[in-house]
Design a protein that fits this description.
235 residues, 12 strands, 40% helix
């Protein structure tokens, strides 16, 4: 699975090391060294994936992530020296698909890039059918989500998670099952990550995210998408 990858890393030696490993995987690699250049090149080249260092001059990586996610669904892998849970969750909340904490091995990064590309189908994945549950429609060929005919802006990770739930409305999925079906049991994606994506989806799906009526919590088990016309007290 070959792709065009944009690498934004302000350390030239580290950037070159990343480039070599990704080229070894037969990817085409574009390297920039600051956040402003990352935004400009992403807009111009429209890469299949972005590897984005958080700490960069001119515009930091989190702001770059925010800008790119507002403009496209390009998969984003964050590189960060910030290791607290709040820092990691902030990156996911902004729409990153994966994160790697420093120090890391270039081989690990290359493997994570391959995993994200497989999950996102950005590099030639097979088209999937249109899924629907009531007025919620997930078009996996066009990578579009609509609710009542209104388009919703979902990240690739949110899209995959929602597609699993829409395929079987009314079924309760454990977090582990959602990890397996949406993320392929990537050992670097945790059950806490599922909770973050559910929280973000509720902001987009629900009239009142604090009192969801579509994406329901089944306490002690996991989550489910409400069946059309179902009267369910769990939320």
């Amino acid at each position: 699975m070959y792709a065009q990858v944009l690498v934004a890393e302000d350390d030239p030696k580290q950037a070159e090391l990343i480039r070599r490993y990704l080229v070894h995987d037969n990817h085409t690699v574009i390297v920039v060294h600051d956040g402003r250049a990352a935004i400009d090149e992403a807009r111009r080249r429209k890469p299949d994936l972005v590897v984005l260092d958080v700490m960069m001059p001119r515009v930091d990586g989190l702001d770059v992530c925010r800008v790119l996610r507002a403009e496209s669904d390009v998969p984003i892998v964050l590189l960060t020296a910030r290791t607290t849970e709040d820092d990691v969750l902030l990156g996911l909340d902004l729409g990153a698909d994966d994160y790697i904490t420093k120090p890391y091995s270039p081989r690990q990064l290359a493997a994570r890039v391959r995993a994200v590309l497989r999950r996102s189908h950005r590099a030639g994945g097979r088209a999937q059918p249109v899924l629907s549950a009531g007025d919620l429609v997930v078009d996996q060929q066009r990578h579009e989500v609509t609710l009542g005919g209104v388009a919703l802006d979902c990240t690739p990770a949110e899209f995959r998670l929602l597609a699993v739930l829409v395929a079987e409305p009314g079924r309760t999925f454990s977090r582990g099952q959602l990890l397996s079906q949406a993320f392929g049991m990537d050992k670097f994606v945790t059950e806490r990550t599922v909770d973050v994506h559910v929280m973000n989806l509720r902001r987009k799906l629900e009239p009142d995210p604090r009192n969801p009526v579509h994406l329901l919590t089944v306490y002690g088990v996991g989550y489910k998408l409400r069946e059309t016309g179902a009267d369910d007290p769990t939320a």
